[in-house]
C-alpha cells in the first residue's frame, strides 16, 4: 500500500499531494493493532483507490466531450438531413452554421466548477468567446409594457449546451430545469437544450432524463453502482483477496463523516464516490477526503460553496 501511494504522489497526483500531506491527514484517524479496527489503514486503503484527474486529463476529456458528444452527433444529423451526403465541404459549412446558433454554458454560479470548466473547454477546442454565455444572459426583461415581461434575449440562438464535470444525484440539473429550462421552453418551444457531462452516475443520468426537459443528456463516463465505494457491489471490495472488511471500513467513514457533514456523512445524497479533479472535489465524494473544519484537515480541497 505504501508503494502504491508513493507512486500516486509522483504520477497521478502530479506532486499536489505529498507524503507529509498523507501523514498529516491519516493521523486524524485512530490507529489499532489489528487490520479490522485500524482506521488509519482503512483510510489509506480508500485513498489508494481514489480516482484523481489532473488538469491534463481534464483538458483531454473536454476535447472528447466536444468531439464525441457535440460535434460528431451534429455532423451525423446534418449528413442525414442532406441525403447521407459525403460532401465534406457541405457538412463543414452546415456545421459552422449550426454552431453559430449554439451557446455553451457552465452549470452553477460563476464560482462553481461547471462554469470554471468552460475556460478550458473553449481553449482546447479553439472556440470563439462569442459562443459562450452565462445563464443569466439567456433572458432579458421587456420593460416597454406596463408589466415587465421575460423574453429570450437572442431569438437567433437555437441550441443551448450546458456543460458540467460531474452529475451525481441530478439535483443541480433539476434546479436548472425549473429555473431556466422550463421558462426557456415556454418562450421558445422549438429550442434544443443539451446537458453534457464528463462523469455521471447511472442514477444521476436517469434522474435528469426523467425530467424530460433536456433533448440530450449524456456523459463521457457513466459511473455504475460499483463506484458507490462502500456498498456490497463496490469495485474496491469485489476481489476475494481484499484484506479489508467492507462493513468495517464503511463504519469508519460513517464515524468521521457524521462529524464532518451530519446530513450526508458518506457524501451528498449518499454518493460514496472516490473521485476528484484538479479544479475541485465533488461533494458526492466521501467527506473525509475534502471536508474542512476547525478540527479536520482534508487531503483534497473543495473550492466552492460550503455544504450545510
From TrEMBL:
Residues 22-302 form the PRTase-CE domain. It holds the Pfam family PRTase-CE. InterPro entries: PRTase-CE. Keywords: Plasmid. It comes from the Bacteria. This is PRTase-CE domain-containing protein. The lineage of its organism: Bacteria, Pseudomonadati, Pseudomonadota, Alphaproteobacteria, Hyphomicrobiales.
Amino acid at each position: 500500500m505504501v508503494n502504491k501511494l508513493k507512486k500516486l504522489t509522483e504520477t497521478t497526483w502530479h506532486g499536489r499531494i505529498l507524503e507529509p500531506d498523507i501523514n498529516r491527514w491519516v493521523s486524524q484517524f485512530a490507529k489499532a493493532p489489528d487490520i479490522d479496527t485500524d482506521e488509519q489503514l482503512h483510510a489509506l486503503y480508500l485513498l489508494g483507490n481514489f480516482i484523481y484527474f489532473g488538469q491534463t486529463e481534464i483538458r483531454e476529456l473536454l476535447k472528447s466531450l466536444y468531439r464525441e458528444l457535440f460535434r460528431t452527433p451534429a455532423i451525423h444529423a446534418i449528413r442525414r438531413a442532406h441525403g447521407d451526403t459525403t460532401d465534406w465541404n457541405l457538412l463543414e459549412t452546415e456545421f459552422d452554421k449550426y454552431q453559430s446558433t449554439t451557446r455553451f454554458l457552465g452549470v452553477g454560479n460563476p464560482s462553481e466548477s461547471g462554469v470554471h470548466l468552460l475556460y478550458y473547454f473553449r481553449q482546447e477546442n479553439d472556440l470563439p468567446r462569442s459562443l459562450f454565455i452565462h445563464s443569466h444572459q439567456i433572458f432579458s426583461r421587456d420593460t416597454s409594457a406596463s408589466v415587465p415581461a421575460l423574453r429570450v434575449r437572442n431569438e437567433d440562438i437555437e441550441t443551448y449546451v450546458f456543460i458540467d464535470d460531474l452529475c451525481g444525484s441530478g439535483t443541480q440539473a433539476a434546479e436548472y430545469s425549473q429555473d431556466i429550462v422550463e421558462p426557456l421552453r415556454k418562450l421558445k418551444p422549438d429550442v434544443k437544450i443539451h446537458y453534457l457531462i464528463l462523469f455521471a452516475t447511472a442514477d444521476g443520468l436517469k434522474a435528469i432524463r426523467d425530467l424530460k426537459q433536456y433533448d440530450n443528456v449524456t456523459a463521457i463516463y457513466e459511473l455504475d453502482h460499483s463506484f458507490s465505494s462502500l456498498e456490497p457491489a463496490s469495485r474496491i471490495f469485489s476481489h476475494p483477496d481484499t484484506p479489508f472488511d467492507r462493513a468495517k471500513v464503511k463504519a469508519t467513514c460513517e464515524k468521521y463523516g457524521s462529524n464532518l457533514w451530519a446530513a450526508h456523512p458518506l457524501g451528498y445524497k449518499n454518493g460514496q464516490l472516490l473521485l476528484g479533479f484538479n479544479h475541485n472535489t465533488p461533494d458526492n465524494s466521501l467527506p473525509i477526503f475534502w471536508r474542512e473544519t476547525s478540527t479536520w484537515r482534508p487531503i483534497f480541497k473543495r473550492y466552492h460553496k460550503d455544504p450545510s
